[in-house]
Amino acid sequence: MSYKIIVDSCTDLTEEMRKDSHFHFVPLELQVGETRIVDDETFDQANFLKMVRESPTSPKSSCPSPEAYMKLFGGEEDIYVVTLSANLSGSFNSAEVGKNLYLEENTSKNIEIFNSCSASVGQALIAHKIRELAGAGKPFHEVVEAVHKFRDGLSTKFVLENLDTLRKSGRLTGLKAVITSVLNIKPVMMATPEGTITKLDQARGIQKALGVMVEAVEKDVKTPQDRILGIAHCNNYGRAQYVKEELLKRVSFKDCIIVDTAGVSTMYAGDGGVIVCY
C-alpha cells in the first residue's frame, strides 16, 4: 500500500528525508510581538532569533487549522501524521479534528495521528520509523501498533542557554528553582512520558551541562544497538558534534543523525540549544 507521512513544521527532518516525496509539511505560525511568521521554507532563523532577543515578550506559536491537514488527506495512500507534543501545542488536536471531519465522508480511509510527546528530532525519529515500516510493505494496523510502541520508548533530553522563552510561555512543569544567568547555571531538561517539560539536572556552564546530559543518556538508554540517536541543534553544530562524539564513545547506537532546528523548534531550543532523542 502506498503511504504519505504528514508532519507539522516543528519536525526537524534530515536533508535526505526532506527530499523524499512521502513527506509533507503542514506549517505552524510564529508571532514575535506584532509580527507573524509562517513556519515554512521562507523562515529566516537568524532574523527570528534577533527579533526574539529584542522582544520584551515571549514568542508564541499557533497550530495549523484542521483544514490544513485535511487538504493532504486526499488520494489513495495510507496517511500517517506526526505532531508536536499535545502538551506543547494544539497541532495534535487540530489534526485529530481534521481526521474526524474527513472520515465522515471517507469512511474507509486509513489515517493515524501520532502525538509525538516530543518535538524536533524526536518527531523526525518517529517519522523515520513510519517510513521504515510502511516502506517495507507492513499493513497499516501493524505500522500503527509498532510506531506507538516505538514512540512510547523514546526519551528526549536537552540543554538550553536559558529558559526565558519556556518560562514566559508557561510551558515548564516541575521547575523548583529559579535559575539565573548571573550564576551561569545551565539547565538540563527532559520531556516526560506525557510530553511536558521538566528539569532533570543543572551544571555550571554549557560544556558541563552537555556532559551531564551525555551521562544521563548513557545511564538510562536501553538496547542502544537497536536505536538511532537523534541530535538537533540551534545554530551551534559544534555542540551537537561534541555530544555525538561523547555519546558514541560510551554507547553503541545503531546510527546517529544530526539536524538543524528550524521554525517552531528554534523557538523552543533557543540560540545554542541542543536536543537529543533516542
Overview of the structural elements:
This protein has helices at 15-18, 45-54, 66-70, 91-105, 121-135, 140-152, 164-168, 206-220, 237-250, 264-269; strands at residues 3-8, 23-26, 29-32, 35-38, 60-62, 78-83, 111-115, 156-159, 185-191, 197-204, 228-233, 255-260, 274-277. By secondary structure, the chain is α/β, with parallel strands linked by helices. The mean pLDDT is 92. 37% of the residues lie in helices and 24% in strands. A 6-stranded mixed beta sheet has the order 10-9-8-13-11-12, sandwiched between helices. The protein has a 4-stranded parallel beta sheet with strand order 2-1-6-7, sandwiched between helices. Strands 4-3-5 form a 3-stranded antiparallel beta sheet, with helices on one face. The radius of gyration is 18 Å and the shape is globular. Helix 5 packs antiparallel against helix 6 and helix 8 packs parallel to helix 9. It contains 10 helices and 13 strands.
